[in-house]
Amino acid sequence: MAWSGGFGGAPFPTTSSQQNAASGLPFAGIPSEMRAGVERLVATEPDHGRSDVAFDPVEADHRPLTLRRLMARHRPVLVVAGLLVVIEALTLQAGPVLTQVGIDRGMDKGSWPTVLTVGVLFLVAVALTALAGWGRTVLTGRIAANMMYDLRLKVFAHLQRLSLDYYTDEKAGVIMTRMTSDIENLQQLLQDGLVQFAVQGLTMLVVTVLLFNYNVELALITVLVVVPALTALSLWFRTASDRAFGRVRDALAGVLSDLSESLAGVRLVTGFNRQPRNVVRHRNVVGAYREANDRTARLTAIYGPSSELLGIVGQAVVLLVGGTMVRDGTLSVGELTAFVLYLSAFFVPIQQLVQLYNTYQQGQASMAKLRQLLATEPSVAEAPDAVVLPPIVGEVVLEGVSFGYVPAAPVLHDVDLRIAPGESVCFVGPTGAGKSTVAKLITRFYDPTDGRVLIDGHDLRGVTLHSLRSQLGVVPQEPFLFAGSMRDNLAFGRPDATDAEVLEAVRLVGLDELVERLPEGLGTEVHERGVSLSSGERQLLALGRAFLARPRVLVLDEATSNLDLQSETKVEAALDVLLEGRTAILVAHRLSTAMRADRIAVVDGGRVVEVGAHPDLVALGGRYAEMYAAWAAHAGTAAP
């Protein structure tokens, strides 16, 4: 039995029936001896349910991300959780009342049945509090998990919408921070922080009412002595911690960014013996993160003990005044005991809120970062009235095209060029002349600053991105392979391709020898970024992927620049098959590739300075002739 794998899942068996299907025979279904096992496997697959989040290149919802909108979908469950919070807060405060009754009506009067009844009621209140807390924890945990599920999908879908310039300007580690720690901070805020805010806040409200109900004079002393000082202290802490936690988020993003870059370039780091300097650099980055955390710890260290001190001062004043009232007979011992217990209960939520405020600040800082990310609009946006590009013939026209990655430094200037359907045109020129930029404009990775790019007379800015790119094929200089099987990577542009079509692509691009010697054939894992394959094999696989996608217009950016001569020969033979009947835009440094094109466009200083067939440009004696003479001398070939 051969094995093949699917993206994101376990490998699945290729049965003899499927092999027959690949050979053109009808698929007879799952064999009877395997059906029970397949059904058991399917039964264990998790059901993640449906999500309201989907990829849309023109997203209609541009409202800012807020906690209220995150929770809008879960209002019914939130109402139930809210009721449980109320029950928990009320039953939690039954203790001091029962204590006062037990002292004044039980112990003072020698009524032990009253004491026993109070004890039983106390246990019932504790049980109800625990039960309500359990239910509240289960519900809020489920709500938080569901909201974070939707948010992760929303952020990921938005990242798919953003244009290439966003990924050029932003570090990969910073983006990873948004999807990991920022969302985890929000989950902690939703699951624990906000609920505890509600519990402790409601507790303070209930306790305040009870304090005034027991003794207005003592309650006013508490409010006038403690609350103003505590309010001033809290306002200072809020302002200072806002800035401090913002620095923590930025510093953490820097740590992950530096780590991501170091791991991605580990071969270069090793080759240049850069490890000691990288350790020093990472130590500085981590040091900045530590300093940011130290700042928040110092703020908390000031605020926490200060609020405790205020609470102790408040209790001392209440005991002094309340003791006098008990002596004068205007307040019972039970009432003073209950008041002191409630006073402690008044300060406990404050202490809890101090700790929760750190969680709240982290969550708010993460929310601000995610809101900023989701508010970022793609620079290459699909127009709301974009039309579907019909099946194209393959005419590509550049009309007065100018472009600059930075507006003040244009890369292309007034480029005019027409590429006929089925024609191959190779762009050559010095490094930085703008060759690859032309390819990126034709695939609409970027939009021109001035002028238009048209395919079959359609301005690319007026057609849907899906209808455009589904008819284009792109083979970059460094082909990217995903972790998965060779078949998965070949069929990346056409997941519905049949086994026969995949095998045909393998044969035509010259990958059949490689596939035959691999132990699992097309089911062989290529590992992340294709590290198990050579440069030439990765490039051939990328060409097979483009062939299988059947594009009408093909863009190849330096497809042979990193290959040895033997691999280049194989790739160029595959190119002959791939380019047949298709409009092709090639970017090349090697003139052996350029000479295979119908025409050559020489780009220099951001302008197309020469266009023509290879013999004509050599005979012209211009810029291309100089390049060809230098290449021929280097290659040991006599230039005509």
> In percent, how helical is the residue content?
55-70%
Task: Work out the helix count.
Answer: 22
CATH architecture of the largest domain: Up-down Bundle
User: Would you tell me the structural class of the helices and strands?
Assistant: alpha/beta
Give the number of DSSP strands.
12
What does this structure look like?
With 640 residues, the chain is of the alpha/beta class. 62% of the residues lie in helices and 10% in strands. The protein folds into two domains: 309 residues, ABC transporter transmembrane region fold (Up-down Bundle); 240 residues, 3-Layer(aba) Sandwich (Rossmann fold), CATH 3.40.50.300. It contains 22 helices and twelve strands. Strands 8-9-10-5-11-12 form a six-stranded mixed β-sheet, with helices on both faces. It has a four-stranded antiparallel β-sheet with strand order 4-3-6-7, with helices on one face. Strand 1 and strand 2 form a beta hairpin. The longest helix has 54 residues.
Outline of the structure:
The protein has 640 residues and is an alpha/beta fold.
Name the features.
single chain; about 650 residues; alpha/beta; ABC transporter transmembrane region fold; Rossmann fold; 2 domains; 6-stranded mixed sheet; 4-stranded antiparallel sheet; 22 helices; 12 strands; about 60% helix; about 10% strand; elongated; disordered N terminus
